[in-house]
Amino acid sequence: MSEPYGAGNWYAATAHDHPELAPLESDARADVCVVGAGFTGLGAAMALASRAKVVVLEAGRIGCAATGRNGGQVHTGQRRDQTWLEKAVGRDDAMALWRLAEDARAHFKTLTDTIPCDWRPGMIHARHKPIGEAEDAAYVALMADRYGYDQLDLISEGDLANELGTDVYHGGLIDRGGGHVHPLNLALGMARRAMAAGAVVHENTRAETWRREGGGIVVETATGRVTCDQLILGGDGLLNAMAGKARARVMPINNFIAVTAPLDDVAETIIRSNVAVSDSRFVVNYFRKTPDGRLLFGGGENYRPGFPSDIAGMVRKNLAKVYPRLAGAPITHAWGGTLGITMSRMPFVGEVAPGVRVASGYSGQGVMLAPYVGKLLADAAVGETGGVELLSRLPTPPFPGGRLLRWPLTVAGLTWYALRDRL
Q1: What integer best gives the mean pLDDT of the chain?
Q2: How far is CA 384 from CA 44, 328, 380, 381, 389, in A?
């Protein structure tokens, strides 16, 4: 597997074998049609396959978009922390959202326990500025006292330097409930499980439009149509006009990753406990070691269609700031991916039309949440709507500027925040 997952994608180069699935070649009937075979769509298909007739339409290959191109970092909780959520939605909903995230973590563990995907526990959140230790300490106390979460601890500047093998950070937090994973192998395992339970997956089949016809929903592709009773839309940053009002609330951005050659003895001196790391910058640097001793490093993004011609060179600049001694390390793989963000950085989840539900805009928090949100969308499709109703109350306002101005206004804002990282 290579190009469908982005040229130079290390995940594709190390993925488990997966035969190409036939595209849709005629009309089909399903109880539920799922658009997108990423974590959301596959989570929905797994949950539905034993309860309903499910057809999944994937424009490329399974997991070929954000699912198979991300950093593989597994964060606990929601994209925004509980302090922010308490202010934004009130303490009761904040508590309910934490419980939902913990349910998602338990669901994720059942997947990683049974699907070979290089799961490793532990996540460090590293501060790139010397201020913030008091806030970190207060958050550890809040999570322990109010939410009963005892997996967070402070890590000092000296201990962090020893752990990471670099002195550019000023301490931070370690979350033993987080971790990292080979996301593409996880997705492929989820697809195998969904198909074994009866789901039908068509690759290389782009869903173009949907409409109501009679008492059902008709999803059109170039090679056939699927008539269904319920429609679930994944797609995250690649959502098209099918998603209705979700499009105004989700903006695509591009992020980039590079992987070094095996670092041999040097690998033992960096990220000693083999956890994942992300820092506190607005444009986050995130990194971890691979099972064969490479450094997988994500850093840098752009806000326009298309990727830079030299992704490796772009990422190397950020890598060298964290690990100057690796500035000249050979880079064997480099690729980009498109993810969806929202104004609030909380996902847009809900019903955009009767029987049509969408989840998008995970804003970098999709690896753990999206499989479970897919399950919640599946539950809603068969009448169990509680989880989706909770998520639908999240604040996800439209981006300002309307159809013509939302892109330049958003780019200007994101660029300003990115510049703050340099101050």
Answers
A1: 93
A2: 13, 54, 5, 7, 10
